[in-house]
Write a sequence for this structure.
């Protein structure tokens, strides 16, 4: 059995209760703690956060969240740490999953505000706190090629898939530094 690394002080391990950028704070903590490399990627493959330098063979863990509608892939965690820290991977993956879910919850709150703004614009009304008339905007629309399967289960699955599509698309734009709002309207995902 390899020698265990010296554990840092409790202050070094402390994670804040609610982090503004939970993935970035976690990867920084993991890199600092292990002396290695930590990276979290979104489900669509973009790097959400990374820190440190590789100090061992990379190990990648899939981050998935299961609920009544099935398992949902939310990203990956890659660690390249000294061998003595390899046992940390399952625990770090759980924290990375929590960080991704925390970021998703914050995104959902932003989306609700954005949906109201987008719905007002699509309805021809000026949203509360309105956008400047000179501010350029782009609207994107996507729909599935196939209609929902017959029955209420098919319609529910289709609606859920549209919600996921809208959320992933919004995340894609936000990771590129673009302010984005999304909604689902008339069987289509719409982004502003």
């Amino acid at each position: 059995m390899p020698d265990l690394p010296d554990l840092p002080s409790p202050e070094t391990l402390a994670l804040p209760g609610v982090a503004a950028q939970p993935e970035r704070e976690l990867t920084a903590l993991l890199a600092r703690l292990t002396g290695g490399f930590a990276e979290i990627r979104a489900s669509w493959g973009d790097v959400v956060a990374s820190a440190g330098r590789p100090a061992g063979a990379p190990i990648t863990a899939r981050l998935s969240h299961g609920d009544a509608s099935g398992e949902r892939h939310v990203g990956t965690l890659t660690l390249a740490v000294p061998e003595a820290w390899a046992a940390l991977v399952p625990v770090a993956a759980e924290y990375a999953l929590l960080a991704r879910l925390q970021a998703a919850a914050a995104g959902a709150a932003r989306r609700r505000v954005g949906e109201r703004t987008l719905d007002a614009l699509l309805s021809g009304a000026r949203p509360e706190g309105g956008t400047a008339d000179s501010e350029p905007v782009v609207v994107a629309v996507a729909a599935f090629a196939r209609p929902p399967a017959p029955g209420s289960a098919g319609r529910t699955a289709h609606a859920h898939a549209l919600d996921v599509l809208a959320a992933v698309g919004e995340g894609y734009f936000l990771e590129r530094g673009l302010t984005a709002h999304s909604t689902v309207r008339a069987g289509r995902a719409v982004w502003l």
Summary: The first strand starts at residue 37 and ends at 42. The chain has a mean pLDDT of 81. The radius of gyration is 20 Å.
